[in-house]
Amino acid sequence: MTRRMEFHVPQHEKRGFEAAGVDRRDLLRGLVAGAGLTLASGVTLYAVGGVAEARAPGDPVSPEVRWGMLIDVNKCPDGCKACVTACSKENGWAETGSSLTDAQWIRKVEVTDPRTKTSRALPVMCQHCAEPPCVDVCPTGASFKRDDGIVLVDKHTCIGCRYCMMACPYNARSFIHEPLSDQKPHAPRGKGTVESCTLCVHRVDEGRSPACVEACHADGGGAMLFGDLNDPDSEISKRIAEYATQQIRGDLGTDPGVHYQNL
pLDDT digit string (tens) for 106-116? Predict the structure, then answer.
């Protein structure tokens, strides 16, 4: 049975562009590799929280894969911010939560069932939609979706118009108002541009899981699962097939890549 949820979000906050995805992937590839088990020359296997993906560096992104996430809200402890802190450290944005201009890469949002008045908090980030509104409205093609479903912003072509921020139903994007320093080479940021969760694309391209998923299993409740939504044999696909899940504002037809269980 479908239940309407009220989202109390803090105030601080053509699909055709895929043709240019190859060059942008090169710009966004990670520069830092993690430890893993070498299977063969150039192929490394990483496993975190039930996720194991092998990918050779340099392999092209394929539409046969669609990366996504499943979050079990029952396993997300109240007050836990392990995922938020990990994202902040990994991608170099400040976790202050005190300004209207704070980064919105990932945040804990309180939701309330209007019928029972029951509230709980859950992590919300860019939902990496199959039909992303941010891509549709971008006048320069800076907002684009990779063939594997990851939605990104090309900082070289973003003009800071913020149309994508207005189009996003999830308040998942933010604008950089001030000059930045000490940036991470794998997560370019810049004054006058828009940014959002990248699913730690630099890690994905190395065969690893996003930093939030690793931290959730190491320091949180193990609520987050990352994997290939297009692979029926992946753990994430099996769970979505077995258990009832929800997509935030799935009624909008955006087909988010982030699913929630027990919401």
Answer: 999 988 888 98
Q: Are 118 and 112 in contact (CB under 8 A)?
A: yes
pTM above 0.85, yes or no: no
Report phi then psi at 85, rounded to 5: -65, -40
CB distance 101 to 143 below 8 Å: no
Q: Is the dihedral of CA 84, 90, 95, 99 positive or negative?
A: negative
Under a CB-based contact definition with an 8 Å cutoff, are residues 221 and 80 in contact? yes
Q: Which residues pair with 44 in a beta bridge?
A: 38, 55
**Dist. CA 46–CA 206, nearest whole Å:** 9
> Does the residue 154 lie in any domain?
yes
Task: Report the percent of the chain where pLDDT is more than 90.
Answer: 64
CATH number of the domain where residue 80 is located: 3.30.70.20
1 within some domain: no
Radius of gyration in angstroms for the set of CA atoms belonging to the chain, rounded to a whole number: 18
Confidence band, pLDDT 50/70/90 cuts, at residue 55: low
Domain span at residue 21 reads 6-261
For the chain, the straight-line distance linking the first and the last C-alpha, in angstroms and rounded, comes to 12
Q: What is the pLDDT of residues 3-25, one digit of tens each?
A: 334 444 443 333 333 333 434 33
Total number of domains constituting the chain: 1
Residue 217 inside a domain? The answer is: yes
Helices (H) and strands (E) in the chain, counts: 7, 14
Q: How far, in Å, CA of 8 to CA of 95, rounded? A: 19
Query: What would the two tokens of residue 137 be?
Result: 């409205």
% of residues, the chain, pLDDT over 70: 76
Distance of alpha carbon 73 from alpha carbon 221, whole angstroms: 10
Q: Is residue 64 part of a domain?
A: yes
Residue 69: is its pLDDT beyond 90? yes
